[in-house]
Every structure is written in structure tokens, then in C-alpha cells.
Design a protein that fits this description.
about 100 residues; 4 helices; mainly alpha
Amino acid sequence: MPQAWELGSELIGALQGVRLCGSVHVIATAETLVAATGDLDLNEKSADRFQQQADAVVAARNAFLDVCREDLACTARWWQIRRRIKERRFLREQAGR
């Protein structure tokens, strides 16, 4: 099993890749994700505090993925319009559940 410092270095390397290629809003959410991950204390004694930290990481990850999806889809070609309409319909249905 990899050590925490190895995972941290991989995460920082991935952040550098995002900084190199990402748009401003993608970089901002990636930095938020890295900060939330860094704040996660695996040795936290309080179960409630650990759960809050874990929830913050999950929320930051979801925000990052949503921004990336939006950023990648913003340059849709004419043949991708139908796919985007179906995707939006699906997301609206998921939000309504």
C-alpha cells in the first residue's frame, strides 16, 4: 500500500499538470480539491470531525469533476449537440430524484 507522502506527491504532480493545461476555473477547483485533501487527517480521533473532512474532500472532488466536464464540453461540434441535449436531460432527471 502506498505511503501518504507518495500519494501527496502524485496529487501535487497532477495539480501541476492541471495548472499547465487547465483553464482558470478548472485550476481553481483543482487547488480547492488539493487543499481539502491536504486537510484530511487520517489520524483524527473525532469521528465527526473526520467525517466533515471526508465530506469536504468528496464535495471538492465532485465540484472539480463538474467543472472539468463543463470545460471539456464547451467546444462542442455540431454533431455533438444531440449528445449534449440528452446529457442535460439526464442530469435534470437525476437532480429531480
